[in-house]
Amino acid sequence: MESRIKQVTARVIHQIWTDRQPNKAVLAALRNSRNMMNKNASVVWPLMLSNLTEEELSHNGQPTYAENAIFAALRCFAIYQQANDHLTYEPDGENQQGQQLFKVLSTLRADESIKKALDRRVQTILGNGNSSSVIYAIYHLVSILKANVGSELIDFAQLAQDLYYFQLSADSSRQVCLKWGQQYYWNSKKTTEK
Known about the structure:
By secondary structure, the chain is mainly alpha-helical. The protein is built from 10 helices and 2 strands; from the N terminus they run H-E-E-H-H-H-H-H-H-H-H-H.
């Protein structure tokens, strides 16, 4: 499942955004559902669940790591996409303009008026091992980002992959937190100036 969650999330985002038009009902349902078990989330299920393999689906009514991660990333996408006429998702990588979420958040650190509050929120995430708490905190960070930037392209599919790994074990959650911390705190301008 090296990048499977990322691929599924990207596919669903492109199904939500077809022919340069968003599926507004799905985006609204995502924004109004805190998790997959919310009754509003059932609007999203046909798109999401049809793209998963049988092993990735819940067989007992409790969402799997894959379902939780993809739903959370899609909700972040819906929050950030609201009121934008252009697609705000693009993969991070060579010849792509999208960036990973914590890299985009690092650009907000330049604003001294929100730096301390933002740093506290990020630090809470980086020091937390509870996936539900981390996901809810990320929702708030995306809202802050939306209010202050709103135009950067974000790799929400990579966020889903990260959230999937975060849930696997204590070691993998620490690895994901280290990755996020590096993206958030490391400043490429410092290296360029030196």
